[in-house]
Design goal:
This protein has two domains: 194 residues, no CATH class; 93 residues, no CATH class. It is mostly beta strands. The protein contains four helices and 18 strands. The protein is globular, with a radius of gyration of 19 Å. A hairpin with a 4-residue loop joins strand 12 and strand 13. The relative contact order is 0.21. The longest helix has 17 residues.
């Protein structure tokens, strides 16, 4: 393999805090206990066998993006070239089956939950050392920059809508910084560490048609011995956003980043037809990647699937 990027899938070390994120839930204890258990133990990378089960769509779902993962050769042959447009399977209703791609199959393409055209697989190719992807041709007006993500699927359950994803305003970015600072302080960090955090990614979007500006972002603070990474989802209206998911990771390999874990909001789409978009988040690290599917349940975001893993 001539070039490799990204890192392994790490369990999320912390999820939400009861006093900050869960107090508004007024369900009976009988209904709430399973969710309470999930909150208290954190949010692991869930598999099909674990307790939080999501039915998901009846057909596969793919991420479409430019190849920035690997370029070179594998035992199965050459990979795609860096920059090629790829389709990576992130969900399959058969769950444990290996990814499948059908050359020539036309799939609907969505960006920000809005249908923007079609993509067609043209050739299956190795990806990383242990995964595969499909090169695709796209019939769309969407311009794929190196950081663009879209979703492809023919699942009948999918509900699309006009894209509302946008850049934050100055006030929204300031609000996100204040929430990130509060989260770092809540975790016991000194004020100097918390206030030195930088917002690295931030998107504003609507997931359920109610017009509420959901914030999806990440922040990081670097100290002498560690890099402190925070991924968060916050819902509500300015200035009353409420943290609905908070995930913290501490990386100590500041030279090579071998223990890094960056979570980046990839895209959104109502995959199961329940009226609320699922969020797809890419886990980026040292020498592999994965895509985590988040589903909103009882006012909180729960990771219900991990797909598209590639590693070396």
């Amino acid at each position: 393999m001539a070039l490799r990027t990204r890192a392994c899938v790490f369990p999320v070390e912390d999820s939400c805090d009861l006093s900050l994120q869960c107090a508004h839930i007024s369900y009976s204890m009988k209904l709430y206990l399973p969710l309470l258990t999930l909150v208290l133990i954190g949010e692991p990378a869930l598999s099909a066998q674990q307790s939080v089960r999501w039915n998901g769509p009846s057909k596969p779902v793919y991420v479409v993006t430019r190849n920035r993962y690997a370029g070179g050769f594998t035992p199965e042959g050459p990979t795609a070239r860096l920059g090629d447009l790829l389709m990576i399977e992130i969900w399959n209703p058969e769950r444990q089956k290996a990814a499948k791609y059908k050359n020539g199959e036309r799939l609907s393409l969505f960006a920000g939950a809005q249908r923007v055209g079609t993509v067609t697989p043209t050739r299956v190719t190795p990806l990383q050392c242990d995964s595969s992807a499909a090169l695709v041709s796209a019939d769309t007006g969407l311009r794929f920059s190196p950081s663009t993500f879209a979703l492809a699927t023919n699942a009948p359950e999918v509900r699309s809508h006009q894209s509302t994803r946008r850049e934050p305003t100055v006030l929204e970015r300031d609000r996100a910084f204040r929430m990130a600072t509060s989260e770092f302080r809540r975790r016991g960090f000194a004020a100097a560490v918390a206030t030195s955090a930088k917002i690295e990614h931030l998107d504003i979007t609507d997931v359920d048609g109610r017009g509420k500006g959901l914030m999806v972002g990440s922040a990081a603070s670097t100290t002498k011995n560690a890099r402190h990474q925070l991924f968060f989802i916050a819902g509500g209206y300015e200035p009353h956003h409420t943290i609905e998911l908070s995930s913290y990771h501490r990386a100590t390999d500041l030279d090579d980043g071998k223990d890094s874990r960056n979570l980046v909001f990839a895209d959104q789409l109502d995959l199961d037809g329940d009226g609320t978009d699922e969020l797809i988040v890419e886990m980026q690290g040292y020498e592999n990647e994965a895509f985590w599917i988040y589903h909103r349940r009882n006012g909180l975001w729960v990771q219900v699937w991990t797909g598209g893993q590639g590693s070396c």
